[in-house]
Every structure is written in structure tokens, then in C-alpha cells.
Specification:
Ribosomal Protein L22, Chain A, two-stranded antiparallel ribbon, alpha+beta, 4 helices, globular
């Protein structure tokens, strides 16, 4: 049963400006495991990864119905790329199955999260 769907569209340049103004922004958004993946990337690919994680976590919070804030923060959600490059949610406050998708252009990153549970009560 689908419990929530969230989408987000983020301008990569906006994330780049945030990193330039506030270098600690990276550490606010990424978990230690995500930081490890991020630090292996360079140039535009690293920026796409960071923008993608921002957008995926925004999508997740929208699907959950909370937004990012008191109930769910950036560190509460961890999304790691598998060996094929697909984003996999490895930690979150949602107990069911989480489907994640991310797509980039040179300018934007678009993400979608679908939350699925085994039964109606979850």
C-alpha cells in the first residue's frame, strides 16, 4: 500500500551558492556514510550528489507529510548509492519500503520518493 509520494526539484547552482557561503552546509545535509561517497567525487559530480541528497531528503519529508523540521531532519535520512549508482534509502524514520529516484540535468536535480507499507495500519 502506498503511504506517501514526494517530489522535489532543486537548482544545482542554489546548492553551490549555499556551500560557498556556508561550508558546514555539507555536514548538515550528509550523514557520515553519505559524506564518504561525496568525498570520493569531484567537481560537478560532487555538487550533483549533494544537490541530489538535499532533494531526495526533501522528497522523503514531503512523502512522510512532515517536511524537514522538528519531526524529521536531514541526519534522520540516509541515502547511499549502490554499486550501480541507484539511490538506496539505508536509514529513515519510515518502517516500510522506500523507493527513491533521482535525475540530473546540468541545471537541476529532480527526485521522487514513494513510501510503501505492507498493511494499512503502518
Amino acid at each position: 500500500m502506498i503511504k506517501g509520494i514526494g517530489i522535489d526539484l532543486t537548482e544545482i547552482e542554489r546548492i553551490h551558492e549555499m556551500v560557498q557561503k556556508h561550508p558546514q552546509f555539507v555536514w548538515k545535509i550528509l550523514t557520515p556514510a553519505e559524506k564518504e561517497q561525496y568525498e570520493k567525487l569531484g567537481g560537478s559530480r560532487a555538487l550533483e550528489y549533494l544537490a541530489g541528497r538535499w532533494s531526495l531528503k526533501e522528497s522523503f519529508s514531503k512523502a512522510l507529510g512532515t517536511g524537514i523540521g522538528k519531526e524529521v531532519g536531514f541526519q534522520d535520512i540516509e541515502i547511499i548509492d549502490n554499486q550501480l549508482g541507484a539511490p538506496i534509502v539505508t536509514h529513515s524514520p519510515f518502517k516500510g519500503r522506500v523507493h527513491a529516484s533521482v535525475s540530473h540535468t546540468a541545471v537541476n536535480v529532480m527526485t521522487e520518493i514513494i513510501l510503501e507499507s505492507e498493511n494499512e495500519n503502518d
